[in-house]
Amino acid sequence: MRLHVLGSGSKGNCALIEGPQGLIMVDDGFSRREVLARMHALGLDEHDVRALLLTHEHTDHVSGITVWHRAFPVELYASIGTPGTRRYLDELPFCQFVPGVSFEVAGISVRTFPTSHDVVNPVGFRFDCAGDSIGYATDTGYLTDDALDALAGARILALESNHDVPMLRCGSYPRYLQDRILSDSGHLSNAQAAEAAPRLVSERTEQLVAMHISQENNRPSLAVRSLAESLGASLDDELGSTATLEWGGGPSLHIRAAGQNRPITVG
Q: Please, which residues bridge with residue 216 across strands?
């Protein structure tokens, strides 16, 4: 399997899980034109999308779904209660599930788990296929026990590393917004992601991707450095844009950050 992140951040989120039978889209917070442009930049075909899964109902994750589904009708999945939060979502034929269940889409086993965010019923995912696995968790104030269990040992791990706490506290955001971001129903900080990383990463893990990085309250290099330090990985350059951990016998672990504006493929 491969992970394609079309964009990750407060201005729009969309990712694609590539398996042997096609693509599973996770969230769609971009216009159809933007999704198509970013897919084509990565050599992906929109007709290969088999299903669309939602993590939660915030606009930066769902604003493009109606137009996308009108052009490319596919199976839609969301946690119970999520479609009902917005009229345009409630009008779509979502298959609703209870967080914690597993189901199969396009030959991939999808395990769901609850996250903690200021919405109705947020979730994260683990995707498994033919011995391969991808873990995906963003927009959560902390990692639940179910999340830690589901994400552990995935070959590709996409993990939120939203903000640097000192930058957030010294930045321009009003205090109430800072407090929301720092709360248990907000977003994971660099420090929280770094604390969790040693529990989640194993010698099977080859890719660790820092997700949903704030453009105002973080820097990709800060997220990468924090994760690298927690795992004993070495920075690949002075900028700290990527890092590598040599396991010894098996494949290396590579650490990088997903961005808001430039799509990436991780495989």
A: none
| CA 29 and chain centroid, separation | 13
Q: Is 145 helix (H, G, I), strand (E, B) or coil?
A: helix
Secondary structure class of 169 (helix, strand, coil): helix
pLDDT in tens, 107-121: 999 999 999 999 999
**From residue 252, how far is each of 95, 151, 196, 234, 246 by CA, in Å?**
38, 18, 19, 11, 5
Residue with tokens 């399997």: 1
E strand or H helix at 148, and its extent? helix 145-151
Percent of the chain at pLDDT > 70 equals 100
Give the other-Cβ count within 10 Å of 50's Cβ.
18
**pTM over cut 0.90:** yes
Longest dimension (CA), the chain: 53
C-alpha pair distances (Å), 30 with each of 26, 54, 74, 155, 227: 12, 14, 17, 27, 28
To the nearest 10 degrees (0 to 180), the angle between helices 220-231 and 190-200 is 40
- Name, in order, each residue with C-beta under 8 angstroms of 258's C-beta and a sequence gap of 6 or more: 5, 7, 8, 158, 209, 210, 211, 212, 213, 264
